[in-house]
Write a structure and sequence with these properties.
The chain folds into 2 domains: 55 residues; 106 residues, no CATH class. Strand 2 and strand 3 form a beta hairpin. The longest helix has 34 residues. The chain is 58% helix and 26% strand. A 4-stranded antiparallel sheet has the order 1-2-3-4. By secondary structure, the protein is of the alpha+beta class.
Length: 190
Amino acid sequence: MEDNIYQVYEDEIRSLEEEIQMLAEKYEDRQQESMFYSDEEILMSIKSFQREFQGESKERESPSDLKAQLESLETDLSFLMKFTGIWFTRHSKKTVEKTGSRTIQKHRLAGNCHSLPFQLEFQLLEIKNKESVSAVITNLNIIMESGEYSGVSKFVSSIEEHGNLLPFFRSLSSYAEWCEHRRCTFLHFK
């Protein structure tokens, strides 16, 4: 009986050690992310925020206006998700490198398109010129469950080579919609 109690305590200790390790890694990531910004950039951001806050405090919108805006945005988002069938369930972003005119961020997305799950991992390279900002997707990796949807693997490989997400989402939406129609049709005949 005492062995079981000790085992429970040891399991709890291991769990806490794992949680501490995970939190330490998150802390290190945030420390690295904050090191990419110079003191001048931080001061400029603080001053910009203060100017915005002072301007906002003079012209604060009423809670009912903010609630109406939020409801409008939620309605628009709901419409887009129903129209495309694409639902994002997770997103994470991590700054890998930041210099004066160049920023590299690593993105991870997960979601469903109709009943078809997908995951994306890519790096976004942003280069700022005096007039504009250009962005390029690199290291694109698309993860989709194989098996029933094995016909997409060649298409996914092509998209990964070219690094263009727009055709991926357009084709995924259409493909998943037709897979759903096909599934419903076969269920009808069963």
